[in-house]
Design goal:
- The protein has about 400 residues and is an alpha/beta fold.
- The chain contains 15 helices and 14 strands.
- The protein has two domains: about 20-290, TIM Barrel (Alpha-Beta Barrel), CATH 3.20.20; about 335-408, Arc Repressor Mutant, subunit A (Orthogonal Bundle), CATH 1.10.10.
- It has helices at about 65-80, 105-120, 135-145, 160-165, 175-185, 200-215, 230-240, 245-265, 285-290, 315-325, 340-350, 365-375, 380-385, 390-395, 400-405; strands at about 30-35, 90-95, 120-130, 150-155, 190-195, 220-225, 265-270, 275, 295, 300-305, 310, 330-335, 355, 385-390.
- Keywords: 4Fe-4S, Chaperone, Cytoplasm, Heme, Iron, Iron-sulfur, Metal-binding, S-adenosyl-L-methionine.
């Protein structure tokens, strides 16, 4: 979730969606995302909508759970008024920021509000992100007792100088402790990694991967570092204090991740995500890649229902003011046209292992598939069976594959 809100139309104060949002909703999965926008320190690479204590200006972290619960209560009424049929939440995801800077009881209260308003599907997946230094064993047990099923720890690296370049504050030695505590509480565990940090070598990255695999998490994410304009990291690179990330080295790092994770029993299911078994894939994130429906709660949170996308006021104080006034916290929205929805379907669908049905492509896209197979970007066997799945090389060049499928 980038810090800059997109351009769009003004969102109505009553939050009612256009009639098109309800079409086919009963057949689409529904999830809830809860944004908790607080961090102890701002990492130099981060462009997310997050705030340290000194940046809150009129908002109080202690009041946040009540404001978020207010939006959750409001969301159910708005969907009903829009003619969207009732659906239980199949997934709930608390992201940030650092959600676990809030007391575990606050997170459980917000989750309880989602349960009260929407109900939970059987086997609901409930995740929170956490920094290794933001939780203890009692916190994790409280979350598990309160209905959370999964925790995603922002490990990022096992190498101190890489963590320092990212402005991460935790000690790598803390990671085995929190993984063990989460296991003891009965939670599934994911570890998030970042590669391509300035000054990170291939051997550094190997060390991080081997350390992560040694914890035996159920799920691993590995994302290439993106240098976002306006961040501290971008300024450091511009001044020559840090090196610009090297594309060729990042490709080598990705291939190393696939080799090491594959050998350890992890299977890729999305370009940047691996799991030990299908049951441990992030169903919430798969909902994004499949263009399902979700309601995003919190400052700057984005939502999507039936091709209608909207976003909330960015700053926690502005967000709280709107919720307290009983009006929708959304400040802008867009209704995606057919062409944009098709582009997004192909862009997102090609990223996941299940791929897309060749028959669903436009004629020009189907024509491009033979060339993509010949170039080693698309799996030939799957293509013969009527599907499109990226090869290892195709994952490295996923954007180029999409451009050829869409003739952009």
């Amino acid at each position: 979730m980038g810090s800059a809100l997109p351009l769009g139309d003004s969102a109505p104060a009553d939050g009612v969606l256009p009639p098109s949002a309800a079409a086919g909703a009963a057949e689409r999965a529904f999830g809830v995302y809860v944004h908790v926008p607080f961090c102890r320190v701002r990492c130099g690479y981060c462009d997310f909508n997050t705030y340290t204590a000194g940046e809150l200006r009129g908002a109080r972290q202690a009041d946040y759970a009540d404001h978020a619960i207010g939006e959750i209560r409001m969301s159910r009424r708005m969907l009903e008024a829009s003619g969207v049929p009732d659906r239980t939440a199949q997934t709930v995801f608390f992201g940030g920021g650092t959600p676990t800077l809030l007391p575990a009881d606050d997170l459980v209260r917000m989750l309880g509000a989602v349960r009260d308003e929407f109900g939970f599907a059987a086997g609901v997946e409930v995740t929170t992100e956490a920094n290794p230094d933001s939780v203890g064993p009692a916190d994790l047990q409280r979350l598990a007792d309160g209905g959370f099923t999964r925790v995603s720890f922002g490990m990022q690296s096992a190498v101190p100088h890489v963590l320092a370049a990212l402005d991460r504050t935790h000690d790598p030695a803390r990671v085995p402790l929190v993984v063990g505590w989460a296991r003891d509480a009965g939670l599934d565990v994911s570890l998030d990694l970042i590669y391509g940090t300035p000054g990170e070598s291939l051997d550094d990255w190997r060390r991080s991967l081997e350390f992560a695999v040694g914890q035996r998490p159920d799920h691993l994410s590995a994302y290439a570092l993106i240098v976002e304009q306006g961040t501290k990291l971008a300024r450091q690179i511009r001044r020559g204090e840090l090196e610009t990330p090297d594309d060729d080295l990042e490709a080598d790092m990705y291939e190393l991740a696939e080799d090491l994770l594959g050998a350890a029993g992890y299977e890729w299911y999305e370009v940047s995500n691996w799991a030990t078994a299908p049951a441990h894939r992030s169903r919430h994130n798969l909902g994004y890649w499949r263009s399902d429906d979700w309601w995003g709660v919190g400052p700057g949170a984005h939502s999507h229902v039936g091709g209608v996308r909207w976003w909330n006021a960015k700053h926690p104080a502005a967000y709280a003011e709107r919720v307290a006034a009983g009006v929708s916290p959304a400040v802008g929205r867009e209704v995606l046209d057919a062409s944009t929805r098709e582009t997004e379907r192909v862009l997102l669908g090609t990223r996941i292992r299940e791929g897309i049905d060749l028959g669903s492509l436009r004629p020009e896209g189907r024509t491009a598939v033979a060339g993509l197979v010949a170039d080693g970007l698309v799996d030939a066997k799957t293509a013969l069976s009527g599907g499109l799945v990226l090869t290892m090389r195709g994952r490295l060049l996923a954007d180029a594959v999409v451009r050829r499928l869409l003739e952009v």
